[in-house]
Amino acid sequence: VLVVVFYESLCPDSKYFLTKQLLPAFKIASSIMEVQLVPYGKATTSNTEGKLYFDCQHGPTECQANIYHACAVEIIKDPMLRLEVISCMIRDNRLPQSALHKCAKQHKVENIDIIQKCFDSDKGFQLLKLNGEATNALRPPVTFIPTITVDGFQGRQASILKNLLSEVCQVFGDKENAKNICTQ
Hints:
The protein is built from 9 helices and 5 strands, in the order E-H-E-E-E-H-H-H-H-H-E-H-H-H. The chain has helices spanning 12-29, 60-75, 79-91, 96-106, 112-120, 122-136, 157-162, 164-172, 179-182; strands spanning 2-7, 34-39, 44-48, 51-55, 147-150. Strand 1, helix 1 and strand 2 form a beta-alpha-beta unit. The longest helix is centred in the first third of the chain and has 18 residues, at 12-29. The radius of gyration is 16 Å and the shape is globular. The mean pLDDT is 94.
């Protein structure tokens, strides 16, 4: 079951969902769940003379944090580690660079310098621009952050936000294979 989370790094609702719903659900159901994280939210992208600019709902710090998140999502390949680091970062994103370094160290991420290089280069900007395009392509369009799709559908957002595991189990459907996971 593919779960895609469209979120903002300084949004309290995003923080709550990632730390209290997504991470716990993934720890239980990683065998039937794939997670994609799309940091961007209600930001806007503009291109002036070939240079990208972002305007984020919670200000410039959020734009920085969103880029760090986008780079970490791109570079950390292990799905559990990726989610652990992102959940750690979103708990305290006021200083995005130190959040990345603290959380990467805490979770023993090897390629912290590659994530920093991604942020320092055009790569981070390109990743955030792509996240913006994916966010803006959602139908129906985003009205609330976070917005979550389960296998491509926004479905019952209120239920997804309150009990992601139950929604994933309903979509998965194969009760026999998900018995140990979905009867918790």
